[in-house]
Description:
Blueprint: H1 4-17, E1 22-30, E2 35-42, H2 49-54, H3 71-81, E3 85-91, E4 95-103, H4 115-125, E5 130-137, E6 140-145, H5 146-153, H6 161-181
Parallel strand pairs: 1-5
Antiparallel strand pairs: 1-2, 2-4, 3-4, 5-6
Helix pairs in contact: 1-3, 1-4, 4-6
The chain binds adenosine-5'-triphosphate (ATP) and magnesium ion.
Residues 10, 13-14, 69, 71 line the site of magnesium ion.
Amino acid sequence: MEEIALHILDIVQNSIYANATFIKVVIIEQPVQNIFSFSVWDNGKGMTKDFVEQVKNPFHTTRTTRKVGLGIPLLDLTCQQCNGKLKIKSQVGKGTMLKAKMDYDHIDRPPLGDMPSTIVSILLSLKNQHFYYEHQYMDQKFKLDTQELQEILGEIFLQEPTVLQWIHKYVEEGLIEIKQRIFK
Length: 184
Ligand SMILES: Nc1ncnc2c1ncn2[C@@H]1O[C@H](COP(=O)(O)OP(=O)(O)OP(=O)(O)O)[C@@H](O)[C@H]1O
Ligand SMILES: [Mg+2]
């Protein structure tokens, strides 16, 4: 995949399909330690141990519209190409955790990509799930929590175009800020 953000979107879609009510995405950028990682947690239906062992294989899917599922195998490939690893932990009825780790400076590591638009796409595909996003850059952190936002918004719908426009800008500026603060 050309951008990490697209992998994240894909993995979050899996959590939505798994009927999660809470989804958490944490991105960690540690250029000095040469680590790039992201994790996705959910409280969805989970997978059995046997299923998890097979899920990196593209022919392992519960999709009915086609015979291959590519989200996890492609991410696994990207991690391996970047001297990293994809770790999956899951428990039936409890939820799933995926952690993708790569060398920050690996020549094959895809760029992060457009996180503000990805967050907006995720928010648009939510149906009342609680979504939490945290982005760490060195010792700086940016956070977005749909439950907190919804409290501020009151009756206003999170998926209203003007709200999403504001969120896009908020994420964009937030990510610029955590990366610039370091050098001040
Ligand atoms: N968070 C999750 N919770 C429960 N099951 C999951 C989760 N993520 C993946 N799975 C299971 O693993 C299978 C493979 O996932 P993968 O993303 O690789 O392919 P897919 O979602 O089936 O198809 P695609 O991603 O290409 O649309 C899914 O069909 C689903 O059964
Ligand atoms: Mg998928």
